[in-house]
């Protein structure tokens, strides 16, 4: 028997019931995509019999899917699910993206401030940094760094974590990267 407890009532335990491989033909090559067919087992709160040899995952409406896991070989398992949601993940991606852009622009503006420099009106000699570019660069670095820190925090906290009663972790949120280039081709 498996009992599912969650911070979100939409959390649902899914099991792999099939799968296969798809072939996509590109202009000059072909791509293989492996997929699994997931079927719902039960929704929070539940207590149902389970297949001890199955592959499982926790998913749900507006919930980030956990990574795939195997249940322990015992007669009764209680799963505690800390559900992560799509909203904070999207916010984290946006903050991290715009924060990194702002940080790069801050580095560029700070570099330009020292390259342009200030020219003394009487001698024409460059001295120090241009205050306008330097202020813009340092401001963008600070704002970009804060945005990136907040975005990364939101990404980490929006993962779905599955633990067995007693604290042992079975699964965390999946890797958000959906494309991977490997020796045998492109996987997604």
Element-by-element helix/strand order: EEEEEEHEEHEEEE
Give the terminus-to-terminus CA distance: 34 Å
Which structural class matches the secondary elements? alpha+beta
Strand order of the largest sheet: 4-1-6-9-10
Low-confidence stretches: 175-179
Helix content: 25-40%
Anisotropy-based shape: elongated
Mean pLDDT: 82
Return Rg in Å: 25 Å
Overview of this protein structure:
- By secondary structure, the chain is of the alpha+beta class.
- It has 2 domains: 2-84 and 160-187, no CATH class; 87-155.
- Helix content is 31%, strand content 34%.
- The chain has a 5-stranded mixed beta sheet, with no helix packed on it.
- The radius of gyration is 25 Å and the shape is elongated.
């Amino acid at each position: 028997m498996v009992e599912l407890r969650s911070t979100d009532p939409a959390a649902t335990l899914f099991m792999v019931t099939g799968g296969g491989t798809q072939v996509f033909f590109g202009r000059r090559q072909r791509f293989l995509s492996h997929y699994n067919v997931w079927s719902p087992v039960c929704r929070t709160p539940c207590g149902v019999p389970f297949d001890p040899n199955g592959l499982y995952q926790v998913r749900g409406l507006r919930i980030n899917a956990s990574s795939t896991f195997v249940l322990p070989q015992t007669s009764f398992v209680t799963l505690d699910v800390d559900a992560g949601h799509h909203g904070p993940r999207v916010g984290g991606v946006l903050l991290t993206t715009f924060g990194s852009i702002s940080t790069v622009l801050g580095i560029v503006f700070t570099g330009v401030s020292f390259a342009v420099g200030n020219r003394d009106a009487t001698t024409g000699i460059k001295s120090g940094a241009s205050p306008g570019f330097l202020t813009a660069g340092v401001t963008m670095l600070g704002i970009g760094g804060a945005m990136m820190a907040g975005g990364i925090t939101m990404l980490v906290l929006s993962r779905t974590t599955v633990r067995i009663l007693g604290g042992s972790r079975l699964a965390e949120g999946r890797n958000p990267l959906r494309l991977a280039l490997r020796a045998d081709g492109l996987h997604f």
